[in-house]
Amino acid sequence: MPDPESVVLQLRAAGCVFAEEEAQLLVEAAATADELNAMVKRRVDGLPLEHVLGWAEFAGRRFVVEPGVFVPRHRTELLARLATGFARPGAVVVDLCCGSGALGAVVAAAVPVELHATDIEPAAVRCARRNVAGHVYQGDLYAPLPSELRGRVEVLISNVPYVPTGEIALLPPEAREHEPRVALDGGGDGLDVLRRVVTQAPGWLAPGGHVLFETSEAQAARAVADVERAGLSARVEESEELGATVVVGRRVNPLLHKE
Fold first, then answer.
1. Parallel, antiparallel, or unpaired: how do β-strands 114-119 and 135-138 relate?
2. Residue environment code for 169-178, b if the CB has 16+ CB neighbours within 10 A, otherwise e
3. Residue 257: pLDDT above 70?
4. Dist. CA 245–CA 82, nearest whole Å
5. What global pTM score does this model have?
6. Beta carbons of 94 and 50 less than 8 angstroms apart
7. Are 56 and 99 in contact (CB under 8 A)?
8. At what angle do helices 19-29 and 33-44 cross, to 10 degrees?
9. CA distance 135 to 145
10. Sign of the alpha-carbon dihedral angle for 142, 145, 146, 152
């Protein structure tokens, strides 16, 4: 096998900030010297480490990812934590724009729920079906969900794309060149997909049900306004440690909020 230090030097020369940690993971993953050399070359050529390894770590677990699939970010662990807190045993949980399925899978691992997940990208759906112990559908947002879920969803997770179109070019090459644009591009102000989600959310949520999504700190106020415009209550949750901002919407239970 190649000297691990030589792997570190190659990765460092390619601009990998965490060259030592990445080298260790690559060395551990490779079965032969030829396989290690091939993996290092793919990483040096700019392929995300997770795509090279075939898995991503999220919330302390490993999830299968393939080239062309959005890699779950550690900041999204706040979204997973909040969604898990709202889930109860037997609840219907829906994960829209599920990508690898990591978010919904973390919730379902913590609480025994009825999980349904959707994504428009075929590669993401393939990965999610390997990662998720639940129902995974291919299609646009709510479109592929069974109609009998309407009015029964207690937790609606939607890690929608929220990068404004004009800022896609500013993303790291690993993201803009190797992850699907549909998983990144949120339209002019980054909130186009979000608006589609929250506009339809009241028809799917059970009374008292929650819809949660990640956004940037700068977008949070506009996102809250969009949620409230859809007839839901809204609040913002933040984690300085993770650098994460999550907007939480709730369908008010009319039986508990009579005039």
1. parallel
2. eeeeebbeeb
3. no
4. 11
5. 0.90
6. no
7. no
8. 140
9. 9
10. negative
